[in-house]
Design goal:
Elements lengths: L3 H10 L7 E4 L7 E2 L3 E2 L9 E2 L3 E4 L13 E9 L13 E5 L11 E4 L3 E4 L2 E4 L9 E2 L10 E3 L7 H9 L4 E5 L3 E7 L3 E2 L10 E2 L2 H11 L3 E8 L3 H14 L2 E5 L10 H8 L1 E6 L2 E2 L3 E7 L2 E6 L3 H19 L11 E6 L11 E10 L5 E5 L8 H6 L2 E5 L10 E6 L3
Parallel strand pairs: 6-7, 14-17, 14-18, 15-16, 18-22, 20-24, 23-25
Antiparallel strand pairs: 1-13, 2-13, 3-12, 4-11, 5-7, 5-8, 6-10, 9-10, 19-21, 21-22, 23-27, 24-25, 24-26, 26-27
Helix pairs in contact: 1-6, 3-6, 4-5
The structure holds adenosine monophosphate (AMP) and magnesium ion.
Magnesium ion binds next to loops.
């Protein structure tokens, strides 16, 4: 058995970032910037008002009060989207709406709440300070500024910023396209009646949805039978169509576990016994330059193996930074008994967590912890990480890895 970190290092070394592409900023959610973005425009593009009211000269209203309002002549109205045509002179005010360009001559906004109108005049009942409620051009982003560095993961706010500076195309690392293959003579598709010995394929749908959750593109490679030729055909199809392939099943010690044999023959294969529970067996092959992750067949094992081995590799292919590949473990509290393995392996216990009044995450087992018992995995939102032989009792400090997006 080798430690998880060692297995993961082998995987990461064989998963270099994909070549950057130019993509519409609007389609880049979740992708990683391949180059820094510099702005060629200021944001806001022009000085504008943050409030509805009147553009005035601060000195004209400096002693204005309810009892002695300042009377100014209204010289026009400017709404958002329209250019101010007139500068504001002494004794004058321009009606302006939020987002409207701020006129020359004025330096303050008399907010509408402190004004009343009187014919063509406005009565201002409170001082307006110079600069307050005025948003200068470039206050958020300046021309020439590095807006985002290379390596930044683009979220919704980033996309908004890119649109606001007119950056329609960005250089990003594309999400890897990942093929998913199930293997096994016992597997059937969908809700057809089961013949003796058959089970329904669940891993393929679990894995495809995990990939989608993580922002990867998915290719369904179907089910291969427990025959070397069929597995080879399906893996080769995946390698031809995808940037990476996930298989499940056929990597343990059974007589018909052919995935290892195939990967060994058509690629450079690392077969590993990883010191974790579940998900000990793991085959990792590189066919040409395409990584093939041979995940174990037991449903929980395939999910855990995906989380701790495949997902970090795929994130690296997608350009994620080195410190953003693996989910972090956070300190938490056990609320139920959690059982560790006593055979030198790190145990991942399926738990659900709640934040307690103490501000800490509290984790309780979600049920049966067998590697075939997917139900408790489905209910879990985190994995408690127990070192070999270290059971946790209620109240004990534990490490927790949060799953989820
Ligand atoms: P294997 O690694 O092929 O020996 O499979 C280990 C266990 O996982 C067996 O009980 C298989 O029936 C089960 N299994 C393998 N593939 C799948 C799958 N795609 N969906 C559900 N169970 C599976
Ligand atoms: Mg099998």
């Amino acid at each position: 058995m080798i430690p998880l970190e060692e297995a993961r290092a082998e995987v990461l070394a064989a998963c270099p970032p994909r070549q950057p592409v130019s993509m519409s900023a609007a389609d880049s959610l979740g992708l990683v910037l391949a180059e820094a973005v510099y702005s060629t425009e200021p944001v806001p593009p022009f000085a504008n008002t943050a409030m509805d009211g009147y553009a005035v000269r601060a000195e004209d209203v400096s002693v204005a009060s309810e009892e002695a309002p300042a009377r100014l002549r209204v010289i026009g109205t400017v709404a958002a989207g329209h250019a101010p045509h007139v500068p504001v002179g002494p004794g004058e005010a321009l009606r302006i709406m939020t987002g409207a360009p701020f006129p020359a001559g004025a330096d303050a906004v008399a907010i509408v709440e402190t004004t009343s109108t009187d014919g063509g005049d406005v009565l201002v009942t409170a001082p307006a300070l110079a600069g307050v409620h005025v948003r200068p051009a470039g206050e958020d982003i300046q021309v020439g500024q590095e807006v985002f560095p290379a390596g930044e993961v683009l979220g919704s706010g980033h996309i908004g910023v890119l649109c606001s500076i007119g950056s329609e195309k960005v250089a990003v690392v594309p999400a890897p396209v990942v093929g998913v293959l199930s293997t096994g003579d016992e597997l059937v598709e969908g809700a057809t009646a089961l013949l003796p010995g058959q089970i329904r394929d669940s891993n393929r749908y679990t894995l495809m949805s995990l990939l989608r959750r993580d922002g990867f593109a998915v290719v369904d490679l179907g089910i291969a039978r427990d025959q070397e030729a069929d597995i080879e055909r399906a893996v080769m199809e995946g390698v031809a169509r995808c940037d990476a392939v996930l298989t499940s099943g056929g990597v343990s010690m059974g007589d018909f576990d052919y995935v290892k044999a195939v990967l060994d023959r058509i690629g450079r294969m690392h077969w590993m016994q990883v010191a974790i529970r579940p998900a000990k067996p793991f085959a990792f092959g590189v066919v040409g330059t395409t990584p093939v992750f041979g995940l174990p067949g037991n449903p929980v094992s395939s999910m855990v193996s995906y989380e701790v081995l495949a997902r970090p590799g795929l994130r690296r292919m997608g350009g994620r930074r080195q410190d953003d590949l693996v989910r972090p473990a956070v300190k938490a509290v056990a609320d139920s008994k959690l059982h560790a393995g006593h055979d030198g392996r790190t145990t991942f216990v399926r738990v659900r967590s709640v934040f307690g009044p103490d501000g800490r995450a509290h984790a309780s087992s979600t049920g049966g912890q067998g590697s075939h018992q997917l139900h408790a995995m489905a209910l879990a939102d985190a994995l408690a990480v127990l070192p070999p032989g270290r059971d946790a009792a209620p109240g004990d400090d534990i490490d927790l890895i949060f799953l989820g997006p």
